[in-house]
C-alpha cells in the first residue's frame, strides 16, 4: 500500500488533511494550529513531497522523519505533522478493519466524560450556561472564565482589587448555580501574571474547581510551577505546547496536575499517546484540549479510550463563542460525529480508524473563514492578554 495524495482542506475555520492510498483508503486528520491555517496548509503540501509513494503504515517512522528533517519545531510544523499523523492512524485502522484504539492496546473505558463549553458576555449569561448544561445532563463545564470578556477592540483598564475580587465573586456564583452536580473547570486563558494567579487561586479554592486552566502565559514553565506550588487547585495546562518533550519538562518541575495536550498540535495520536504515558508515570490526569471539529474530537477519543489516566474530554458546543456565530453542524460536516449521551459522557466509536469521515460537500457548504488578527489593548496602548 502506498500514499497517493496528501491534501489540505479548508472548511469554515478548520483545516483538515485528507490522505489517499493506492488501495482506495482515505484517512482524515485535522490541524490544531488554528491561528496559522494557511502556513500549516503550505507545510502539509511541503510534507506531501516526501509522503507520496511511502507506505502509510510506517506512522512512527514518518513522524520522526518529518519532525527531525530540520528540527525547526513549533506550532505550524507540528500542526501539519499532527494532521498527517491522525490521517495515517485513520488509514491504519481502516486497513486492519479495526478502531485506532484497538491498535493502541484496546479500550480501558467505553465512554468518555466530557465538559461542555460555557460562553457568555456577562456573568449572568455564564450562569445561565452552567444551568443549561446541568439541565442537559453534563457533569462538568469548562471554558468558564471568571472574567467577563469585553470585545477586543475595547481598551482595557481594571484596578487590581476589582480584577481579583470580581473574579472570585463570579466563581462563587458559578458554584451556587452548579451545586455539587457539576464540576467547574476555570479557564484563565493565560491572562494573569504569576502574582495575580496566586491571589485569585487562593481566593477561589474554597469553591473546589476541578482545575485552574492556563493561569499564566505558557512561555516559562517555572512560573506555572510557582503558581501550582502556591495554591490548592490542580493546574491544567499544555494546550499551546507542541511536543512530548515540553510536557516532560513541565511535569519534571511540578507545573501541572492535569495535562492538556491538543492531539492536533502535539504530533497527533502518536504524540498525545506519549504525553499520556509520561503523565501516567506521575499520576497526572489527561484532559485532551479540543476546541475544534468533530475530527479532533474523534482523535481525542482514541486517547480517552486508551489512557488509564484520562480525566475529562473538552467537548465544544454549537457556537464559536458568541450567539449567532455558529459552527458547522457536526452531522453536515462529517459522518460519525460523537454525540453527548445525556449523562455527561460521549460514546467511544468502534468504527474502523478514528470513526469519522468528511461529508463530500463540506467544503462547499462551509467555505473557509479566515480569523481576524485582533488582540486587546490597555488604555495606555500596550498589549493585554485576554
Ligand atoms: Mg484552554
Mean pLDDT: 97
Low-confidence stretches: none
The CATH architecture term of the largest domain is Alpha-Beta Barrel
- Give the bound compounds: magnesium ion
Please indicate the percent range of residues in DSSP E strands (runs of 2 or more). 15-25%
Shape annotation: globular
Total strands: the figure is 14
Question: What about the largest sheet?
Answer: 9 strands, mixed
- CATH topology of the largest domain, what is it called? TIM Barrel
What would you give as the CATH superfamily of the largest domain?
Answer: Enolase-like C-terminal domain
Tell me roughly what share of residues is in helical segments: 25-40%
Structural class, judged by helices and strands? Answer: alpha/beta
The number of helical elements comes to: 13
Element pattern in H and E: EEEHHHHEHEHEHEHEHEHEHEHEEEH
Radius of gyration: 20 Å
The rounded distance between the terminal residues' Cα atoms is 47 Å
Any idea of the CATH class of the largest domain? Alpha Beta
Total domain units: 2
Amino acid at each position: 500500500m502506498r500514499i497517493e495524495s496528501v491534501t489540505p482542506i479548508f472548511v469554515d475555520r478548520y483545516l483538515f488533511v485528507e490522505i489517499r492510498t493506492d488501495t482506495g483508503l482515505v484517512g482524515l486528520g485535522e490541524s490544531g494550529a488554528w491561528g496559522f491555517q494557511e502556513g500549516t496548509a503550505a507545510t502539509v503540501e511541503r510534507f506531501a513531497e516526501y509522503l507520496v509513494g511511502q507506505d502509510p503504515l510506517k506512522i512512527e517512522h514518518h513522524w520522526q522523519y518529518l519532525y527531525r528533517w530540520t528540527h525547526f519545531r513549533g506550532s505550524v510544523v507540528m500542526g501539519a505533522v499532527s494532521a498527517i499523523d491522525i490521517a495515517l492512524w485513520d488509514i491504519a485502522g481502516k486497513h486492519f478493519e479495526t478502531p485506532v484504539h484497538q491498535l493502541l492496546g484496546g479500550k480501558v473505558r467505553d465512554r468518555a466524560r466530557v465538559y461542555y463549553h460555557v460562553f457568555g458576555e456577562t456573568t449572568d449569561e455564564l450562569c445561565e450556561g452552567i444551568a443549561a448544561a446541568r439541565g442537559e445532563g453534563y457533569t462538568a463545564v469548562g471554558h468558564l472564565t471568571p472574567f467577563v470578556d469585553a470585545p477586543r477592540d475595547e481598551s482595557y483598564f481594571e484596578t487590581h482589587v476589582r480584577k481579583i475580587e470580581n473574579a472570585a465573586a463570579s466563581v462563587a456564583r458559578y458554584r451556587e448555580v452548579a451545586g455539587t452536580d457539576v464540576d467547574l473547570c476555570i479557564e484563565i486563558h493565560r491572562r494573569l501574571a504569576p502574582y495575580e494567579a496566586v491571589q485569585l487561586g487562593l481566593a477561589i479554592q474554597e469553591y473546589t474547581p476541578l482545575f485552574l486552566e492556563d493561569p499564566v502565559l505558557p512561555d516559562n514553565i517555572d512560573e506555572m510551577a510557582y503558581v501550582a506550588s502556591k495554591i490548592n487547585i490542580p493546574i491544567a495546562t499544555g494546550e499551546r505546547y507542541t511536543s512530548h518533550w515540553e510536557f516532560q519538562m513541565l511535569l519534571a518541575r511540578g507545573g501541572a496536575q492535569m495535562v492538556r495536550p491538543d492531539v492536533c498540535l502535539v504530533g497527533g495520536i502518536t504524540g498525545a499517546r506519549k504525553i499520556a504515558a509520561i503523565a501516567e508515570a506521575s499520576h497526572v490526569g489527561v484532559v485532551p484540549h479540543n476546541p475544534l471539529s468533530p475530527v479532533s474530537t474523534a482523535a481525542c477519543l482514541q486517547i480517552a479510550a486508551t489512557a488509564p489516566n484520562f480525566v475529562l474530554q473538552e467537548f465544544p458546543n454549537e457556537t464559536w463563542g458568541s450567539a449567532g456565530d455558529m459552527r458547522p453542524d457536526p452531522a453536515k460536516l462529517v459522518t460519525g460525529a460523537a454525540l453527548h449521551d445525556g449523562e455527561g459522557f460521549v460514546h467511544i466509536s468502534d468504527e474502523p480508524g478514528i470513526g469519522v469521515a468528511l461529508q463530500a460537500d463540506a467544503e462547499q457548504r462551509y467555505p473557509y473563514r479566515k480569523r481576524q488578527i485582533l488582540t486587546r489593548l490597555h488604555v495606555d496602548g500596550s498589549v493585554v492578554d485576554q
